[in-house]
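Sample entry was shown:
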Amino acid sequence: MTWLAFRRHRTNLLILLGLALGLGLWMVVVAHGFDTIPLKSGLGPGGNVYRYRDYFQGSVLLRLPYQADVILYLLLAFPAVAGALLGAPLVAGELDGATNRLAWTQGITRTRWLVTKWAVVGIPVVLLGWLLALVTQWWSHHVIVVGIPVGVFMSALDSGFSRIDPQVFSTTGLVPVAYTLFAFALGTALGALLRRVSLAAIGTFVIYGVLALVMVSTVRPALAPQTFIPTPWPTEHVAGLVIPEARAAWYLDYGYEFLPGIHHPGGPSADTLGHGCEGAPDTVTCFERHGIVPGIYVQPDTNYWTLQWRESLIYSVAAVLLLLVSLGSVRRWRA
């Protein structure tokens, strides 16, 4: 049973392995390019000489930062590709070829049949996702952390990346492994429910993409306590202002908080008062009168591993539930 399951899906496994190897090789080439670009000299404020690397030299399409962006997007899509390529046909493909009937007439229960196939194909897929995550961890240090300077407000001001930035966070650490497991389980469950490989593959991409957007925009910011960093003015008025506390952080939003010891039970919120002060003739005086301070909400870099573990747990639990859905669907199939 184990060998038959491997033989049936080995072609797709080899295709996925080839894609991962090609992507990994491209990452090595780009990292080497970032490391070997010659240093140039420039004049800074006060006539100080500084050294820098011109990462945007060469033809437009082959510039290293653009290649790094494409690699990041491919890494983000890799779990969905794995789910569509190997999860979707795991069960639906058996129905198309009626090969499930042969197995079930040989004394193999449907539960054992699915669990064996799920493990034989799923374990290599997850291991491949884990190896790619390790390569990405190394690559992100050379290309993201070293190659591209980290900015002030991160994605809010489009100044660079840190490891907690959404794109980098989703391709490093533990979460890529959990994503791959979830996408594989999602493809399997959709194949068992829809019983058509094409529909299951399309559904895997769509549902995985929607859930990823919901995770980044709604769930992940709330998985760990946010940090409020006061600023002299509302964020839109201080673009380019250097705030050391926000240097390695994921910018979420700007808003207002009451100063310590000041409370307005039953009254307007700090955000309501702050937005009202933005149009006042003397904004600072208005802030002081209401006892509020403008600032930004961020997820600090120190929450990186807390967010990694909690998000990985969510996706892992979801993968187990999807496996149970697949089992329930297969057990209701007619032989």
